């Protein structure tokens, strides 16, 4: 399982804060193993929240825009987890985490959406199904074999 964000992504957004929050207690150097663990845990938490609406195949087929959004969310969740792991959480970090979880729960509840690169409901890319929204049910069935006309009206 690939995390939604990397250490480089966190560094790009919170370089100085990461150095302070993730510094090892003994050496004072950033502990990249614990940061990686925080990123993996954050990605698992995100998938767990979104599983109420999206299948694992849909989550693995997200388009670039949705992945970019989840990267931001992953950074906030991971940063919170890292700060907790090092006992260095702040109100600001906790507030970003709470807002991120709330937004993910809203997406899972249908008050937002992620987009995928998967073909439309037909599965073969055909356009005969029409435009189907995220929360709509699509039913496609084969032609009926036993009809009144074929059975000669009983």
Automatic annotation (TrEMBL):
InterPro entries: Phage_Mu_GpJ. This is Phage gp36-like protein.
């Amino acid at each position: 399982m690939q995390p939604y964000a990397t250490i480089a992504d966190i560094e790009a957004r919170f370089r100085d804060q990461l150095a302070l929050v993730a510094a090892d207690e003994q050496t004072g150097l950033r502990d990249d193993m614990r940061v990686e663990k925080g990123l993996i845990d954050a990605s698992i938490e995100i998938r767990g929240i979104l599983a109420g609406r999206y299948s694992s195949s849909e989550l693995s087929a997200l388009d670039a825009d949705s992945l970019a959004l989840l990267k931001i969310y992953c950074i906030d969740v991971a940063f919170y987890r890292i700060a907790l792991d090092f006992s260095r959480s702040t109100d600001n970090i906790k507030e970003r985490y709470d807002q991120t979880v709330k937004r993910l729960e809203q997406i899972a509840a249908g008050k937002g959406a992620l987009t995928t690169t998967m073909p439309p409901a037909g599965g073969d890319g055909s356009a005969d199904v029409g435009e189907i929204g995220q929360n709509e049910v699509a039913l496609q069935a084969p032609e009926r074999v036993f009809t009144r006309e074929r059975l000669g009206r009983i």
